[in-house]
Amino acid sequence: MAETDAPAHGPAAERVDLLLIKAAACLRAVQLVVRIPVPFIGGLQTYRYPGLVIVGYLLTVAWTVVFFTRALQARRMDPTWVYADVAVAMLGLLLIPAACVNSCATGWQHWVLPPAMGAAIVVAGFAPAWVAATGVGLLVGAYLVGSVRQLAAGPEAFGPVVVTVLSMVAFAVLAAVVAGHLRADGRQLDAATGAALAAGAREAAAQARFDERTRQYDVLHRTVLTTLSIIARGRLDHRAAEVRALAQRDADYLRGLITAANGGPMTSLASALAGVVRDKQALGLQVHSQFHELTDLPADVEESLTNAAREALTNVAKHAGTGEAWLTAVGDDGGVVLRIVDRGRGFHPDTVPPGRGMLRELRHCVIEVGGEVSIDSAPDQGTMVEVSWCR
Q: What residues contact residue 354 under an 8 Å CB cut-off, 6+ apart?
């Protein structure tokens, strides 16, 4: 019987389940529709209570519509409803033969027999193996109990009853085998698709790392290496104040890259922050930077955090009354915490309206990507800006 104790949830596996539900629904419809002509060819005369038989048929049709409509909407078979379907079929297998004037266990009057085989196919294809085996066994048992009158009529009745029982079991086994193979193929397709997507992601990450290294090498060529080359050729006096300042900026830039890479591969956020540090130092702000355990973040988050750091350092240069600041960036459980600190004049954060100045710019940079901003400052006590983002 079909194993569904641990169903796959990939797209291919879901499509297989939907296909099986549609196939079972079409089969059940055919099994019920072929009985419609029975009343028009005198079939009702073979029943003791024809009105009850008609009501039973209509209720079975209604149950079938509700059962398969719900399964198609959910795109899966609810085990509880599958068990209920077996119970409905068992009830018909017991009652319809009892309603016949003569024995009809294998005759066309026993209209519930084909839908009961459909119920055996459904439970075999959608229930765990032991439940499917139990359900088919109960259906066979109900059919045999309903066939007692026919079996008591003589040995010639055994053949048709045995053929019907074997057919019910054979169809159930076939359904279980087919469903099992289709689900296995669906799981394999989902696994292959997942592996391909993972491989593509790894390739993209590797390409991104390569592009980032290339960009870093280009920056190094335009900054540190250029400075060293010019000094080595004697075109700059290394003792001049502006050359020492340039060398200091390049050294700080390298230091930021090195500290960022100590915990692992260089990330694009670390490189971007190091670039911000160098830019600010080129404009006269001394920035001491430390980066630890940074990981790759979504591109929009990295851009927002970089802009926030740039805005905070710009505010130091404009308003803090000091030429020195500290920037730290620390990875935190898949996220990051940035702190920008200065020892300048400070201010009262409560006196600044939320929609103006640095507060507005920082919130615009960070909050849109799900980050948080806090500012701790007091007059003559400096300022600390903390920007955090968590996955």
A: 360, 363
Nearest to residue 85, comparing CAs of 136, 133, 130? 136
Q: What is the pTM of this model?
A: 0.55
At 91-119, the pLDDT tens digits run 988 888 877 777 666 666 677 888 999 99
The answer to whether the Cα torsion of 16, 22, 26, 29 is positive or negative is: positive
Q: How far is CA 4 from CA 168, 263, 309, 362, in A?
A: 21, 45, 53, 52
How many domains would you assign to the chain? 2
3-class secondary-structure state, position 42 = coil
Beta-carbon contacts of 1 under 8 Å, excluding residues fewer than 6 positions away, are: 124, 127, 128, 129, 130, 132, 133, 136, 172, 173, 176
| Parent domain of 264 | 237-389
CATH number of the domain within which 371 lies: 3.30.565.10
Same domain? 34 vs 175: yes
**Residue matched to tokens 């490189």:** 271
Q: Could you tell me if residue 282 is inside a domain?
A: yes
